[in-house]
Design goal:
The protein is α+β, with helices and mostly antiparallel strands. It has one domain: Jelly Rolls (Sandwich). The chain is about 15% helix and about 35% strand. Strands 2, 3, 4, 8, 11 and 15 form a six-stranded mixed β-sheet that branches. It has a four-stranded antiparallel β-sheet with strand order 1-16-7-14, covered by helices on one side. It has a two-stranded parallel sheet with strand order 5-6. The N and C termini lie far apart (about 50 Å).
Length: about 325
């Protein structure tokens, strides 16, 4: 423990008190660290203001696991192909997926149906109108493919920069029945405005560096990293292999997401795109992956087509 007073006295001072060692200061520093820790916790969006309720619901989940049956909903995506930017000429490739049912207002997103449980007796069905949903686990593998048969100018642009985002609508300002459009509100401008992947004016740099608009979106993941293609054989001279480039970055990136719910959900038994999904819980997490070549300031830069995503996901629920 640091002494509150330490001597000898310095010239011109009447006290040997050491700043920052009082009880009040230590408590304030400890409280700041605790608050910072809880803000970074990946807690459910509906419980971000109540850590006590989160602990209570987790305890209830452990008790119910002894007397209830677990049910599962899964998704598997193999070698998912990226798509072009919906609007604009920026050389960016995208991948759009949402965890819930189909969103008719956002046709660019591919639904994973991780919260759809039809009525039945199997381990992927529910017996009644209620289920206690625990959490959703998503595992992603982003891999860069080798380039073959490309010109020298394009071959030198091997590094690909990625930005992986997982967001959810902030229901503090949006009712449950409505849905925000990330195409026009996902990011903040440098003058506190908003834009998205449908905007044509913001530059490539802004799409990758500007922060997410937290007024309308809750952020569960926002990662930036770079990958390079694996080395390939360019030619063979006298049995000696010559490689097209020296590999200096990783060729794959693994990302694991945990999206907790911990809520007893009522399921919709009507018809439509939301049938057999919870109607008292927002199950729509949006996964957005952006990719651009590292030297996008070159005028002849092309969009990076040589990358794919493998994805597996599972939702666990207790049928009570």
């Amino acid at each position: 423990m640091v002494r509150r007073y330490a001597g000898p006295l310095m010239p011109g001072k009447r006290s040997a008190y050491v700043p920052g060692t009082s009880t009040k200061t230590r408590r304030k520093v400890a409280a700041t660290k605790i608050q910072r820790f809880w803000r970074k916790r990946n807690v459910p969006s509906r419980l971000r203001v109540s850590t006590t309720r989160t602990a209570q619901t987790r305890m209830v989940s452990r008790v119910l696991s002894n007397i209830s049956e677990n049910k599962y909903a899964g998704f598997t995506g193999e070698c998912l192909v990226p798509v072009n930017k919906p609007s604009g000429l920026q050389p960016i490739k995208y991948l759009f997926y949402n965890t819930g049912h189909e969103i008719t207002a956002l046709p660019e997103f591919n639904h994973m149906s991780l919260f759809r449980f039809a009525q039945g007796d199997s381990n992927i069905q529910r017996t009644g109108d209620y289920m206690y949903i625990k959490s959703t686990k998503i595992n992603m593998e982003i891999q860069v493919l080798p380039q073959q048969g490309v010109s020298q100018g394009e071959d030198l642009q091997g590094v690909i920069e990625f930005r992986v985002m997982c967001v959810k609508a902030n229901r503090k300002y949006n009712p449950l029945s409505s849905f925000s459009d990330p195409g026009g509100s996902l990011f903040l401008t440098n003058v506190n405005g908003k834009f998205g992947y449908d905007s044509t004016v913001p530059t490539t740099h802004q799409n990758f560096q500007q922060p997410i608009n937290k007024r309308q979106w809750l952020v569960y993941c926002d990662k930036r990293f770079s990958l390079s293609p694996p080395s390939i054989d360019a030619s063979s001279i006298g049995g000696e292999r010559i490689q097209s480039r020296v590999q200096n970055l990783k060729t794959k990136k693994y990302i694991n997401l945990s999206l907790p719910c911990f809520k007893k959900c009522h399921f919709n038994n009507d018809t439509g795109v939301a049938v057999n999904t919870p109607d008292n819980f927002d199950s729509q997490w949006l996964i957005i992956i952006q990719a651009v070549r590292g030297s996008y300031c070159v005028d002849t830069t092309r969009v990076p087509d040589n990358w794919r995503v493998n994805m597996t996901a599972t939702t666990v629920a207790s049928d009570v």
